[in-house]
Write a structure and sequence with these properties.
This protein is α/β, with parallel strands linked by helices and about 190 residues long. The chain contains seven helices and seven strands. Bound molecules: zinc ion.
């Protein structure tokens, strides 16, 4: 295939990049300094093989256990459950949270054939030593709610409190894009399920 088209096609696969943007980026790359293009290609290539899933929290990291799971200053009695690795960054950014995390890699969605067994729920259940509260920070949508209710049903009998972030209109539909102040408030005002 023509290398220019190949580049456009590859870039179009990225989230949020349509064909038009892919063309714009490709034209930019064609005119850019060789050293920049080489660095971008090397950086993207370097992702492969150097990342893994953390054995504890299931996030994507360069070590297992990851940096967050290895941080002994964190409060071991709280675990915040999120849908995606990047949600951890958003919640850390709120500056309000000092517990551990767990990444589900999705949310329960029967219509898409995603049930509890397709998510990283078993590793969560295997790591509950000393945990008193699980904060469910899944997205404020139907799937996020279904996931929160499921976790509540499983964790309550184990004597673990389950809470859900208090969402305001300003939080939007994905944790990843929520601003710092909204997330801080959502954490502070979380409600028990
Ligand atoms: Zn981890």
């Amino acid at each position: 295939m023509d290398p220019i088209r190949r580049c456009v096609q590859a870039l179009s696969r990225l989230p949020g990049i349509g064909e038009k943007t892919a063309w714009r980026l490709t034209w930019w790359l064609l005119r850019a300094d060789d050293s920049i293009v080489t660095e971008i290609a090397a950086a993207v290539g370097g992702l492969q093989g150097s990342v893994m899933e953390c054995e504890r929290c299931c996030t994507i990291a360069t070590t297992s256990p990851c940096k967050t799971c290895s941080d002994t200053r964190r409060d071991p009695s709280i675990v915040c459950v999120v849908e995606r690795p990047q949600d951890i960054q958003a919640i850390e950014g709120s500056g309000e949270y000092r517990g551990f995390f767990h990444v589900l890699h999705g949310s329960i969605s029967p219509l898409d054939g995603i049930g509890p067994d397709q998510l990283r729920i078993r590793p969560l259940l295997a790591n509950l030593d000393g945990v008193k509260e699980v904060i469910v920070a899944t997205d404020p949508d139907v799937e996020g709610d279904a996931t929160a209710l499921y976790l509540h049903r499983v964790l309550k009998p184990l004597g673990i409190q389950v809470s859900r972030l208090a969402y305001g209109v300003s939080v939007g539909t994905e944790i990843e894009y929520a601003d710092k102040v909204s997330l801080m408030r959502a954490l502070e005002n979380r409600r028990l399920l």
